[in-house]
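WP5 quarterly update. Target: Phosphate transport system permease protein PstA. Source organism: Microbacterium aquimaris. Length: 363 aa.
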Amino acid sequence: MTTIEKTTATAKANSLTSGRLPKATPWVVLAASWALMAVVFAFANIGNPVGDFNIAATVFLGTVVFVLAIYVISTIVEGQRKAADRFVTAIVSAAFVVALLPLISLLFTVVVNGLARFDIEFFTYSMRNVIGEGGGAIHAVYGTLLITLAATIISVPIGLMTSIYLVEYGSRSRLAKAITFFVDVMTGIPSIVAGLFAYSLFVVFFGPGISNGFMGAVALSVLMIPVVVRSSEEMLRLVPNELREAAYALGVPKWLTIVKVVLPTSIAGITTGVMLAIARVIGETAPLLLTAGYTQSLNLNLFEGNMMTLPVFVYNQYANQGTSPDAAIARAWAGALTLILIVMVLNLAARAVAKFFAPKTGR
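Structure tokens (predicted):
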């Protein structure tokens, strides 16, 4: 190897001497900045509960330190021009982090406070005959899953068929425009209105005083349907017309083209839209208070008796703390953490389903 080749190889191996920072430098500086701020706020929080640790300020100030540090380091090593580019990139990244601060703070607070009662008893016992400490939320977990499943079974066929009509059949007809208008109106209605609608509907047929899980499912479906319609409609419109025309050219009927070509092509986006609709309603409290009510016992029958759900459980534990306020608050935090984990698991499952059913583009 010649002297020039050795010099070139050495310069590539040591990027600092060649006027370039290693690729991992921004990540290392960011991690170091956050760690520094975490140590500072940890010392400031000595003697206080872990939940009082200011995670939002830690992340924000750590990001500010990162922006300044990466600019200074880049100026010394790479020069003013490259440093300006890194500075703007860091500012854009910092804006993204600032937008995530409420979510970061929320997750940190829920996890720290919810872990105290995140135990076996919480997932195996209900609140029946429990006044002070102890008890669990198994009745609320089952109620949430059953009511949300029923609402999904009601909403997805209606929403999907509506979107198919709007894209494939209605086109620019007056009926399609009217449906689109009313779907947009339904998207913005308050959740309490959906609960009042479901309650009034069942009162007309069954009389006053009725309350069950199926009423809650109907109320949630009113909120889910417009989300499913709009998301599915956009996904169906993304399917290239060439695919439809190719199927028609082969003599395939329109309904079979929709079933065999259009829906499989857009199934990934439709699944994501359905999960967004579920995430939209699974945490609703007001409509379920009016329809499903609340109970301290386990009820698996959607059509008879009150049924507890996790949002109502959290509200009830916070509003009616009983003889042991600390235990009730701990159960409320654990219920909130359980609800977040259910949404996360459902989203992961939706991603897996979308990836599995997505059209394969390779050979």
